[in-house]
Amino acid sequence: QSVTFSENGNQPERKPLKKASTQRLLEQMNQIVRPIANATDDGFQPGRVVLTVHKARTIEKKGLVGKADPYVVLKYGTQKEKSATVNNNHNPVWHVTGCFDVEEQSTNEITIEVFDDDIGKDDFLGRAIIDVHEICEAKEFVNKWIPLEKCKTGEILVSAKFIPIQKIRRSVGHISLTVQKAKKIEKKNMIKKADPYVVIKLGKDKHKSETVNNSHNPTWNFMVDFDITEVSPRQISFEVFDDDIGNDATLGNVTLDMDTIIKKQKLENYWAPLESCKSGELLISAKFTPAPEEADINGTAITIKKEVTTEQFEEKNVQKKSVQQSFVVQKKSFLQSEIHHPDVEFLDPIYRDDEFVIVEKKRNNWFMIVSPKQNLPINVNLVPFKQTSDKNSPIYIYPLPRGGFHNIKRVVHSGKGLTKCGYEKPCVLTAGQAYQFWTDTQGRNYNLGNMKTETWGPDRSWVVYNQEYFQAQDYIEAALKLADKMEPQFSGPISLYDRLNVDAA
Known about the structure:
Blueprint: H1 19-37, E1 47-57, E2 70-76, E3 79-82, E4 93-102, E5 109-116, E6 123-131, H2 132-138, E7 140-147, E8 155-164, E9 171-183, E10 196-202, E11 205-208, E12 219-229, E13 235-242, E14 249-257, H3 258-264, E15 266-273, E16 281-290, E17 294-297, E18 300-303, E19 315-320, E20 323-328, E21 351-352, E22 357-358, E23 377-387, E24 395-401, H4 406-412, E25 418-420, E26 425-430, E27 434-441, E28 444-452, E29 463-465, E30 475-481, E31 490-495
């Protein structure tokens, strides 16, 4: 489970929750989180994996004459996707996307195989295996180089994400793109100038511009539109080619991260340097328009505002800025009706990233973010504190969930008289897992005890760095390891604001 609390800072007079009220809310939370966490223990959560193989590098050379003509095949069970062939290239660019439906008892591996397109039998150039469980748990990863196996050399660049079945048809919005022009395009033909055109691709949606003859600084003013859904790939690719008799030579490529466009809403006159070439840039503009409230899921028009936990779906009225809006939710939640609580509302975030979540302001003075998986790796800060009233205080090191300084404020205002005395040290730990905290000081290793990161509730875990370990330095050497493992899961210095008080040691 993964839960984050946030206070409503917009209320001028905020009264703290009474103990009984807090306990009631925590009990409600437990009842909600546990069924979600256990919902997929027996298999996969149904949904869809979207996997893109962008390109490869240093592919093995097997033929005695000429370079390879590589293509890539993605396979998941009986589902299969094949790229186009890239001729005479050991660093091919494909940007091929496979959308694979995942069911509860589906296989756990996506196989990616590279072949050399040839007369007769195609030579095998390497294989990579992607763990579907890892994609489902991570939700998304972008631009990950994966080494090919069963070959001498080669890597592929892969991005992937998982979309739960209830979100597959959800519309995100609309992106309008314009490739205005290019400059300093590489000259590959020694006899004449290039005749360049540009291809823009998002998944299987592909658009080609007009060709501009005899120019290394072409102007296209080429405009395309993409409808973006939850299953759309994360990146939009741009490839420049030289229009020629036979095979068109590639003159460079570049990708734009769609999340960047969505967050900024507008991208104007951006010069994007081309890759896989000696020179060249594209001038790109983009505009994102969010989807309207209503989306089409399983053929039924709904407004995606919240999920209802009862089996009887009813009309709900929401008041926002004195305007009455009504909507009907006509899909079944995976939560069971018996765990419904009238005080708990389900909201879709307006915006989210690694550190922030924005939700619509209502009557809420707290909210939580829930993951359907238990014991996920989470971003953690190791934060040092000292007793405010004692200059010879030991150092108290807390493992706090990253993503907002309210976690640090929670410790400072805990009534223990602590103040932050150093910088946050980021690491990644598994929620609920106990880690031994070791320190290297004065030539010896000391185990300061165990610490455990929880994603919600009061802070119950910390270690104490006593005066006996103090040295004339402004950092603490730290290493975290599991009790049954020899190698540490994390190691590094925790920087302090001031040098430790050695005289008091």
